[in-house]
Amino acid sequence: MSDAHLQNAPNMREFPVQPKPLTRILFDFFQDAPAITYLFMMGIVISAVMLYMNIKDAFSRKASVNPLVAEQPFFSSMMGWTILIIVGIVLLALFFIFRHRNLGIKEQRQYYELAKIATPTVEQLKILRMDAPNSFYYGLWSQTTEYYPCATRLPNTTFQPKTFAIEPALTYRQALNHDWGIVSAEQYRHMVDRLFEGMHSKEFALDLDYVLHFDEYADPYMDEHTKSTREKENFNYLHHLAGLIEKPSNFVTETLQSTAQHPPRLVWGFDLWRVFPMARNAYMAGYISEQQAWQDMEKSANLIYSLFDSEEAYFDNLRLGHAYWSNNFEKTQNRREMWLLYQAHCNWPVRGMPWIQKSANWSEDMRTGFASYRAQAKQTKDSNPSIGFIK
């Protein structure tokens, strides 16, 4: 990858990686080596005091009434050595500052060279932009398969950078196990296939249809009071879901409707987005190849481009799906903050990619909004007392 395509420093949002400010260099050095910093500062202070005393002594000699004292040289050997010590300390400090100022750039470039990472194509950036708000919020990489430097890229290297860590595959295996219970390539494949099949959208379609058409699901022998109470509870859930993402209720109900250009969007934005962190983690964990990760992300991105008219529409739908999945106010607020921060401050290359709609092969369930699944549920005449995604 060329210098023109350097990314942000890991865990930082400034793009691309910049020379480290002087204040940050000093702060980091003090944090990492307080004893050496203390000795360095004491050396400067002691040398400065010695120089001051030598100069003061020289002026005192010149002002002496004793001609033997007054005729002594102004510069003494002690003064010379003191000046040399100060100059040496300053030069050492400048060398240290210059070396560390550009270390982040040097080490990121070295990582790319060792890993043989090529400059991303425009098409690859269009794919990775689907995960960009999340990447920007956490300061992750947005132009490579890995979102953080990983040992999977460098299996046989002794490269140990100082400005970022190279995380072992175990880190990402633990993440996949914690989030999804994935501990193998086969389990990854199974879970990604479920996402492409609408893991969350399927149940969301049923729940939303149940809320909007309760009469078609309810037991015909249900008394009117119970039916009225249940309908109120259902619509309260609908308003709650809309409130979590700070959207009107009709924003939620419209996801069940199809148009001439699109099938029902349900929460496909969330289902398809989850392929990205899963594929990237699986590659970094060593479960799948980089090629496989790109194939899954490309398939997901093409479906997203076919379903949504803009990046904002996609992310709003992602937030709805996240709210349906989490049902958690703090988490949904975090997602909203993520989008607002990205929209207001992100200047990364992926942010400027054009949103061009694509055609894609929609499955029957995607095209119909799981119509057959909903019809089957209606035939059972089950009052479905529990709505919301069950993890």
The share of residues in helices is 55-70%
Outline: elongated
Mean pLDDT across every amino acid position? 87
Distance, first to last CA: 41 Å
Question: How many helices does DSSP assign?
Answer: 20
Strand content: under 5%
- Global Rg: 31 Å
H-E order: HHHHHHHHHHHHHHHHHHHH
Ranges where pLDDT stays below 50 over 5 or more residues in a row are: none
Characterize the biggest β-sheet: none
Strand tally:
0
Give your account of this protein's structure.
- The chain is an all-alpha fold and 391 residues long.
- 62% of the residues lie in helices and 0% in strands.
- The protein contains 20 helices and no strands.
- It has helices spanning 22-32, 34-62, 67-70, 77-101, 103-115, 122-128, 132-138, 169-180, 185-196, 201-212, 214-217, 224-244, 249-253, 268-273, 275-284, 290-307, 311-326, 329-345, 364-368, 371-379.
- Helix 9 (185-196) packs antiparallel against helix 15 (275-284), helix 10 packs across helix 12 and helix 17 packs antiparallel against helix 18 (329-345).
- The radius of gyration is 31 Å and the shape is elongated.
Task: List key phrases describing it.
391 residues; mainly alpha; 62% helix; elongated
